[in-house]
Amino acid sequence: EPDALKHAVQTIQIINKGESVVRGNVTAKPPQHLVNASSIQTRELLNSTSVRKKDGLHKVMNLDVTIKPRDTDAPGQFGWAAEVPLDDLEESKRRWSEGYFNVFLSDRIPVDRAIPDTRPQECMQNLVHDELPTTSVIFCFVDEVWSTLLRSVHSVLNRSPPHLLKEILLVDDCSTKDYLKEKLDAYMAQYPKVRIIRLKERHGLIRARLAGAAEAKGDVLTFLDSHIECNVGWLEPLLDRVHIDRRKVACPVIEVINDKDMSYVMVDNFQRGIFKWPLVFGWSTLSTDYIRKNNIKVSDPLRCPVMAGGLFSIDRKYFYELGAYDPGLDVWGGENMEISFKIWMCGGEIEIIPCSRVGHIFRGENPYAFPKDRQKTVERNLARVAEVWLDEHKEIFYGHGYLHLLDKNLIDIGNLTEQIQLRKKLQCKSFKWYVENVYPELEAPLAKAEGLVFNVGTRKCLVQEKGSLSFGICDLSKQSQHFSYSWVRTLRQNNTCVSAQVAERGVALEACDNTKPHLRWLHKSNKILAEHLIAETHFQHLCLEAGSEGDIVSLKPCDGSSPYQKWHFTHYFAQ
Ligand code: UD2
Ligand code: MN
């Protein structure tokens, strides 16, 4: 039984943590007779005709030369938690910041350790095609920990059918550590499939991936982070999806290599990658209702609104047809959103493949420096993605704490012409289509509030007629009384916005422009304040006020008790 370690998985406890990555712990050892069961070796499998059926399908090869490991007593073997000896606690603490995980333990764990085969039982019956495309595995890294990098590479070498693994490309994004130079060259020289690409200057993850992809010869590109462990049978199910349809982008289930004790931890089933505003990636478990209604099996590929970013297989030519990554994205972050929207909106699909599993060390901090400020880099990347892909929904993104990104004096997000042209050329669908068809659970109202703007003092509603504002008897059927309070905090009717005229203590109407601060209003506790004055100390806060005759609208010093300064909209979508 080549998947003997499967049974060890029973010992994995799963602790559900709602929408975040679900972690557990490998606690007990598997029974020895299972661990010692012999595994099918690569050559036997490839020569064997019995595993290949005539109809062009075969069972996934359970290749795992590490299932019967060299040193069964080594720390971390079988994916169990390793322990730091008391005498070494200081050293292990000191070395933490080399990778922001337990580097000391990583160095003591075999680079080819066995890990529990965490695939759902059903995967054993799944068939994949005989004629699968080959893949280039691309690892980009900067200052990766030696033992972790090696373990990543060995897990690919040991657990991938050799005829499908064209090459492993190690893209060194200008690391500063000496061991990643000659020592790495010498070590990898033993493995003809491994090629090292050295970047002469720091490209950042995104452009490093592009550099790796440009060198790749395989039919499919498989991107992996440089601190992972591929599990048994991980590759074929991914390549099979791309083979079935080259527009499918396949992601393995990302499991957890515990940063403290290096144990391999299985994650919950039925998890999809999603995002919340402002484009924050997260995991979400499919509801049991949805699973039942759609009759989804635990081994079925799951349609996934966005990918985590690090681990996926994509047809090489298709990757370029999609324009690869926006090369204007800097260093790290947001590229998973970009490629996800691009794939879905331009005719592709992203799937999570439960029969393919890869462990990843999730870390609290990045163990490398950002050439520029980290937060600013990621924000800028996200703003590029929002501008190119989100259509009118981009206001929701800006409205969740990113209004400052609209100020062109504060931030230059660079030229977007090529990205916008690409979207046209590929005839990609709208973001509205994406929300309706791919991610209907997303809460995406286009305004914070809308409808009539009712004034409590006059009991009348705001009217926009012939370019000026006045009041009328409230009437929902009149379009001239329909306004919205947008995510970027403008008071708007179609493309006309209410602007604050501070000198005149009045208001005017002008064409909406999200970059203009004097078009922004803070609507809270029923008041509507001119927002750009709030930070200015020499101004009293000014509020929208209705004239007591119910005709004019003016700006007056805010007065908590005046009903003429109290307003509300018919509908509120968010506060
Ligand atoms: C996640 C993704 C990661 C990437 C990132 C957002 C997973 C498991 N990981 O963050 O792949 O999509 O979100 O951008 O989905 N690196 C370089 N050059 C750099 C910076 C990083 O080569 O300038 C390498 C780094 O060594 C690592 C990989 O890029 O192998 C990803 O970086 P990370 O592990 O720090 O990102 P992670 O997992 O927090
Ligand atoms: Mn990572």
Automatic annotation (TrEMBL):
Under the GO molecular function aspect, what terms does this record hold? carbohydrate binding; polypeptide N-acetylgalactosaminyltransferase activity
Superkingdom of source: Eukaryota
Q: In which pathway does it act?
A: Protein modification; protein glycosylation
EC id = 2.4.1.-
Q: Which cellular components does GO assign to this protein? A: Golgi membrane
Q: Which UniProt keywords apply?
A: Disulfide bond, Glycosyltransferase, Golgi apparatus, Lectin, Manganese, Membrane, Signal-anchor, Transferase, Transmembrane, Transmembrane helix
Q: Where would you find this protein in the cell?
A: Golgi apparatus membrane
Class of enzymatic activity (EC top level): transferase
**By what name is this protein known?**
Polypeptide N-acetylgalactosaminyltransferase
| Coverage span on the entire protein | 199 to 773 of 773
